[in-house]
Every structure is written in structure tokens, then in C-alpha cells.
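Technical note accompanying the year-one report. For the benefit of new consortium partners, we illustrate the data format agreed upon in the data management plan: each record pairs a sequence with a C-alpha cell string. No post-processing was applied to the example shown here.
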Amino acid sequence: MRLTLPALALLGLLATPAWAQPPAGQWQSVADIATHLAENGFRVQKMEREPDGFEADLIDRQGNRVEARVNPVTAELVTTKYEGRAGPVHEQWLTLAQVARHLEGQGFTLRKIDTEDDHYEVELTDRAGARTEAKVDPLTGKILSSKPD
């Protein structure tokens, strides 16, 4: 079953317009938003923080790739665009939400997290404000390598 925009609206997954977004201080974390999306049947492949919300690459229950804008406070989908069928999913990997929660628990703020062929690639900021780009082990969530961003 393919979810249409009216069906998404009925499920409460479409939100208010992007121009009505609240200040960044009220935003949910990447982990919380990714968890909400997963609870609503999406596998999150990428989340990127934008000035007015998050951009996400998702895989829906039917295996379709979906590009979406996400409300940063409610985690609802603002817009969606179907991108065709997804390739194989790494079922044994930690989910993007699990990796994000692990890194956020260490005090990092995530700006972008992306699924690569053999790792997660993450752009993050530490408590001191230093920006870092890191490769993260998809089975453990540990940082494999990092460099200043």
C-alpha cells in the first residue's frame, strides 16, 4: 500500500508549513525524530539539519525511497517526494536513531547523519562547539575516525 498525501495527513504525519517553524531551541533531537519516523513505519537513511527543519531520506514499509522535510518540533512530515525503490537494507546494523541517541548521549549535537555502504557518516558538534566529521561503526555506534569539519 502506497501512502498518499491525504493518507499521510490522516495519520498525522503532515505538519504545518515550513515558514511556521519555531526557533531551533524548541526542536527535538535527531534521535527523537528518527525514532518517531521509525515508529510510523519508516527506515531512516539520512537526516540533515536545515535552518527550517530536517531533511530526511527514508524507506517506507513498501520499500520505496522517500525524500521528506520534517517538522523539527512535532517530527511530522511537511513534504514528501517518492524517489523509486530502495536497494538492500542493512538489517543487522544499528538504526540511525540508535546511533544518533548513542552520540547525543555522549554530548554531541548532530547536524547530519547519513548511511554509507559500510558505515554511518556524521557531522556533529561537541559541547565546546567544535565541529567534527566522523565515520561511525554501524554495528556498535562507536566513532571509527574523525576530523575537524
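Partners are asked to follow this layout when depositing records. The mean pLDDT is 85.
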